[in-house]
Amino acid sequence: MRKQTTLKKSVSLSGTGLHSGKECTVKLCPADEFDGISFHRTDVIPGSGIINICAGAVSDTRLCTTLKNDHNTTVSTVEHLMAALYALGVDNLVIEVDGPEIPILDGSSQPWVELIDEAGLIKFDEPVKAIRVKKDISIKEGICMARVKPAAEFSLDIFVDYPHPYGKPTQRYYDGSEYEFRKEIAKARTFCMEKDVKNMQDLGLIKGGSIDCALVLMEDGTVSNSEGVRFEDELVRHKALDCFGDFFMAGYPIVGKFEVRLPGHELNNKLIRKLLSDEKNWGWK
Ligand SMILES: [Zn+2]
After folding, report:
1. Residue 105 shares a structural domain with residue 187
2. Residue 118 belongs to a domain with what CATH number?
3. Cα(28) to centroid of ligand 1, in Å?
4. N or C: which end of the chain has fewer CB within 10 A?
5. Are residues 238 and 145 in the same domain?
6. Cα 128 to middle of ligand 1, angstroms
């Protein structure tokens, strides 16, 4: 088992929240071994702003993942940062943020990967704690499915199929390695359908949305972004990225074989909650 890590130094960046449209700054700060990952809202009453990562803190999964603590303090759109932390093996971190939402940036994990690289990692003496899956657990909702089985290593088998030329039926297998994440997944952007943009605006969401923060799939089969797609299969890659972030919401890496079909944040969170709901399902590794 590898040793626990944190960042060598604090690093920060600023950007706009996709849904709130608010400008905010995120500061990633080193933490001690066994501290885990926590968000600290610096713009709320002192003592009410700490949100520790755990599957039970996930309170809303409409379009993005929102975490909430006992003081009803929330932080939204945490998943792309969480995916980068998971893949690069950052176990202990304080994430300070001066607003309700983590900036969407370019809609991928790449800016977070670059920020973590800028800080560098240090290792502690203690090995990382991980969750070992002991039973086959699954959630099925219509044609969507998420499942995890016992296995010696993490892996993700993912299938997507969307009504768009860039979303044709695609199956991919990922081993969750840092090398693979950096090369194949980190740059894949979040996406939405042209018709959904208006629906979301009507709901008061995506106030900070622009062509720079998501791939917009047009009804004529093209994408609206002038640079086009970053990968022909960018959609399945981004869905895999979301899975990494959603699974790390357990607070620890999970050792098991994941199989997902048309995954979403809500389904992923239900799977993790079901896994952790019974101590017969899992153990520490
Ligand atoms: Zn996403």
Report:
1. no
2. 3.30.230.20
3. 20
4. N
5. yes
6. 26
| Owning domain of residue 57 | 3-127
Spatial distance between the Cα atoms of 127 and 57, rounded to a whole number of angstroms: 25
C-beta neighbour count of 213 within 10 angstroms: 20
Residue finishing a domain among 75, 95, 127:
127
Judge whether 191 and 235 are in contact, CB under 8 Å.
yes
Collapsing DSSP to helix, strand or coil, 154 comes out as: coil
Question: What pLDDT shows up at residue 208?
Answer: 67
> What distance in angstroms lies between residue 79's CA and the mean position of ligand 1's atoms?
7
Q: 183 in helix, strand or coil? A: helix
Give pLDDT, residue 106. Answer: 93
Active site positions, annotated? 265
Sequence letter at residue 80: H
Which of helix, strand or coil describes residue 143?
A: coil
Q: Is residue 275 located within the same domain as residue 173? A: yes
Q: CATH code at 142?
A: 3.30.1700.10
**Residue 195, H or E segment:** helix 194-202
Amino acid at 285: K
Report the number of distinct structural domains present in the chain. Answer: 2
Do 101 and 39 sit in the same domain of this protein? yes
Same domain, 111 and 215: no
Burial letters for 101-135: b for 16+ Cβ neighbours within 10 Å, e otherwise?
Answer: bbbbbbbbbbbbbebbeebeeeeeeeebbbbebbe
Nearest Cα to Cα of residue 135 among 271, 257, 281, 260:
281
Whether the pTM exceeds 0.85: the reply is yes
CA of 110 to the centre of ligand 1 (A): 12
